[in-house]
Amino acid sequence: MSTRYTESRIAQAALDQRALLGPFKHSAILDVQAFLERNHAIQVRHEDGWDDRISAVMIRRAHPDRTVIGVNASHPLARRNFSLAHELGHWLLHRSGAFPPGRDLRERQADLFAVELLLPERLLRSWCEAYRIDDPARLARRLCLSTSVLRRRFEELGIAARGR
Ligand SMILES: [Zn+2]
């Protein structure tokens, strides 16, 4: 993969990841740790005693098959899910490291990847309809994600939300 990513390429990378789910590619990914372990043999370690500001860290990536991601054990599942999807973004987009983009850009790209993986527009709209939910907090609980992530995504996509 090139080190220059457009938003549409990142969205496509996320779609490619969803394709790994086969018949479940239109379903919510409720357990990102299991997704990483099953599809990429990435080991996830829950780390105690971390500063609250640290969400997750790729601990070892000397070999692509032996990546270990540490995640802050004190964070709720909803937050850990997003953090792990973000790290998967780094792993897929920034692993080669030939001409790494600046740190801020890398972080934005990993966040964008996580959002496209967990809340792709078409699926999010279909879930809202299927569950008859237009309250980000309720949908967040259903999807094992944090309310703030859902609120931001609703805003981005112009989905009218109740319960603010
Ligand atoms: Zn990051």
What does this 3D model show about the protein?
- The protein is mainly α.
- Helices cover 52% and strands 9% of the residues.
- It has 7 helices and 3 strands.
- The protein has helices at 7-19, 32-40, 77-93, 103-118, 121-131, 136-143, 147-157; strands spanning 43-47, 56-60, 68-72.
- A 3-stranded mixed sheet has the order 1-3-2, covered by helices on one side.
- The longest helix has 17 residues, at 77-93.
- The mean pLDDT is 90.
- The structure holds zinc ion.
- Zinc ion binds at residues 86, 90, 107, 110.
Brief descriptors of the model:
164 residues; mainly alpha; three-stranded mixed β-sheet; 7 helices; binds zinc ion
Number of extended strands:
3
Helix content: 40-55%
Give a short account of the largest sheet. 3 strands, mixed
**β-strand amount:** 5-15%
- Return residue spans where pLDDT drops below 50 for at least 5 consecutive residues: none
SSE succession: HHEEEHHHHH
Radius of gyration: 16 Å
> Order of strands side by side in the largest beta sheet?
1-3-2
The shape is: globular
Ends apart, CA distance between termini = 40 Å
Bound molecules: zinc ion
How many helices? The count is: 7
- Structural class, by secondary structure, is mainly alpha
